C-alpha cells in the first residue's frame, strides 16, 4: 500500500511525525512532502530532526516540485493524510490553489475521489475557516482536528497524540494499536 503524508508548518508537528512512524511500522510505502516551515517546526517542537522523518519515508519530495509523482492522479496511492494541517494549507486545498506540492497532492486525492484526511490545527475558528472546512468536506475530504478523548485515560502527551493519529489511520482501515479503544463502561 502507498500513502501520501503531508506535514505543514502548523503547530503540532508531532502528529505528522507520529503518522509517518506508524505507517513505517505497518510497512506502508510513505510518500512524504514537508513544507519549509514544517521542517523548522519539527525541530522546534520535537526531539526529531526533519532528516529523521525523511529516513522513515519511502520517497521524499520537495514542496516546490510540482512535477513530482504525487502531483499526478495516475500515480496510484490509497490516499493522503495532512498532519498537522495549517489554515494556509486548508485554504489552498479548499480553493484548489496548487502553487505547492502539498496542496497539489491533496487536490489530486480529491479529484481522484481518494481519501484525504486533514488534522486541522487552529482555534478559535472564524467563519472563513469553517467555510474552507465545509468546502473540503463537500469535495470528499475528512476534517479530523486532533481533539483528544479521555476515555482511554491518557497519561502522557504521547498517549494523546497517538489517539488522534490512530483516528486518522482508522479512515484507511489501518490498525497501529496506538491506543486502547472504547469497549463500554465497566
Explain the overall architecture.
The protein is an alpha/beta fold and 186 residues long. It has one domain: Rossmann fold. Helix content is 40%, strand content 16%. The chain contains 7 helices and 6 strands, in the order βαβααββααβαβα. The protein has a 6-stranded parallel β-sheet. The longest helix has 14 residues. It starts with a strand and ends in a 16-residue tail after the last helix. The mean pLDDT is 97.
- Low-confidence stretches at least 5 residues in length (pLDDT < 50)? none
- Global Rg: 15 Å
**Overall mean pLDDT score?**
97
Strand content: 15-25%
Quick rundown:
The chain is an alpha/beta fold and 186 residues long. The protein has helices at 13-25, 36-45, 50-56, 87-94, 101-111, 127-138, 157-170, and strands spanning 2-7, 29-34, 59-61, 79-85, 115-120, 142-143. The mean pLDDT is 97.
Task: Produce the secondary structure layout.
Blueprint: E1 2-7, H1 13-25, E2 29-34, H2 36-45, H3 50-56, E3 59-61, E4 79-85, H4 87-94, H5 101-111, E5 115-120, H6 127-138, E6 142-143, H7 157-170
Parallel strand pairs: 1-2, 1-4, 2-3, 4-5, 5-6
Helix pairs in contact: 1-7, 4-5, 4-6
Which properties best describe this structure?
single chain, 186 residues, alpha/beta, Rossmann fold, six-stranded parallel β-sheet, 7 helices, 40% helix, UbiX-like, prenyltransferase, Flavin_trans-like
